[in-house]
Amino acid sequence: MSLPLPASSASSVSPERTKTRLLDLVKRFGPQTAQDLASRLDVSVPAARRHLGDLLEQGMLEAKVEKPGGRGRPQHVFALTERGEAAFPNTYSGLCVDVLHHLRDLFGQGAVLKVLDARSLALAERLRTELAGAATLGERAEGLAAHLTELGFDAVAHRESVGAGGEEVWYITQRHCPNLSVARQYHELCVSELTLYRNLFGVPVSRETRIACGQGCCRYRIGAAGP
């Protein structure tokens, strides 16, 4: 959902509109470098950095240091803060938090996980049907990533060689969390998501990073135990 855009002339784009577009890009694609944002906005890197500096001062963005894909030289990326996330309307998350809050108060903390696990089992059955034609682990991973992207997770599946023997391992990386405000208050949602993937694939699945913990993405390793 894009932020409301202020009026601008046809011959130029106002600084505020550029900042709005910049926030939209970070919301859509997840944490981005200044170079990536400059390219997407079709502006110079110094211009992008000026806008990023303003948004950092406003508390809409935060700067982090990440390794691309978990490897390579560390780089500075910019991600939405809670204040930045709040600029995008999301009444659904507020409703979910209220429902889970009342569920916990009425039936105890364990009730939240029971409800979410029941939901995960139902989702796993539905996804197994949808992915029935996927013969290999990689095809199932790619099919799940496509399904997750339709739901707003901006997910990709990829294969990497790990360890001294060069073992091939599949990963699913979710670059956005549409349920972030819920996940930050109820870690059971993330526990349930991991359970869902384990039920779906029937092989070991481990989570290496988590957006709700302040990291840039949710990264799942599929088919082999993590280090």
From TrEMBL:
Domain of life assignment: Bacteria
Pfam families from the UniProt entry: MarR_2
Listed SUPFAM superfamilies: Winged helix' DNA-binding domain (SSF46785)
Domain annotation HTH marR-type: ranges: 17-71
InterPro entries associated with the record: ArsR-like_HTH, HTH_MarR-typ, WH-like_DNA-bd_sf, WH_DNA-bd_sf
UniProt name for this protein: Transcriptional regulator
Organism: Deinococcus malanensis
